[in-house]
Amino acid sequence: MDEIKASTSLRIRRLGIALAIIACGVVLRLGGYDIGLPYLLIKYGGSTLWGAMVFFLLATLLPRQPLVRVALIAIVVAALTEFSRFYHTPWLDAFRLTLAGALLLGRIFSWWNIAAYTLGIVLAALVEALLLVRSIWSPD
User: Fold this and answer.
1) Residue-wise over 52-84: b if at least 16 C-beta within 10 A, else e?
2) C-alpha to C-alpha distance for 15 and 9, rounded to whole angstroms
3) For residues 90 and 94, what is the distance between their CA atoms, to the nearest angstrom?
4) What pLDDT is recorded for position 1?
5) 34-69: pLDDT as tens digits
6) Residue 140 DSSP label
7) Nearest 5 degrees, angle CA 92-CA 94-CA 96?
8) SS (H, E, C) 95-135
9) Would the pTM count as exceeding 0.90?
10) Cβ(31)–Cβ(51) under 8 Å?
């Protein structure tokens, strides 16, 4: 029973981190220009946060998987999402023009986005590993 409770607690924490990252990313993308942040920080900072979010969402869904495996799966998911921008249908293109579509799927393919996603995923995995090593929370 304690194992289930600990696993649930870890999932809730990871989901909370993912939701906090989503909030930070939305604030950065929607308010970054208003406070004078440079374009590159807004663009690639948002992509880095998006990668970290993918990592933590996958870590929430796969709590027993090694962090390296979760990170590799997250990189594949992020890259596939970026490559999906080459696929066009009227409904998908219409969705991409909405705010939700732009934030979730993006609009234009960029190798730099894949690099930023990977950076965010690696940083998220390192932070998670550091937290687990320091026993701030336990995977079990």
Assistant:
1) bbbbbbbbbebbeeebeebbebbbebbeebbee
2) 10
3) 6
4) 46
5) 898 999 998 899 999 999 999 999 999 999 899 999
6) -
7) 70
8) HHCCHHHHHHCCCCCCHHHHHHHHHHHHHHHHHHHHHHHCC
9) no
10) no
